[in-house]
Amino acid sequence: GENVEQHPSTLSVQEGDSAVIKCTYSDSASNYFPWYKQELGKGPQLIIDIRSNVGEKKDQRIAVTLNKTAKHFSLHITETQPEDSAVYFCAASRSGAGGTSYGKLTFGQGTILTVHP
Amino acid sequence: DTEVTQTPKHLVMGMTNKKSLKCEQHMGHRAMYWYKQKAKKPPELMFVYSYEKLSINESVPSRFSPECPNSSLLNLHLHALQPEDSALYLCASSQDRTGVTQYFGPGTRLLVL
Question: Which string of DSSP letters, residue by residue, matches B77-106?
Answer without folding.
Answer: EEES--GGG-EEEEEEEESSTTT---EE--
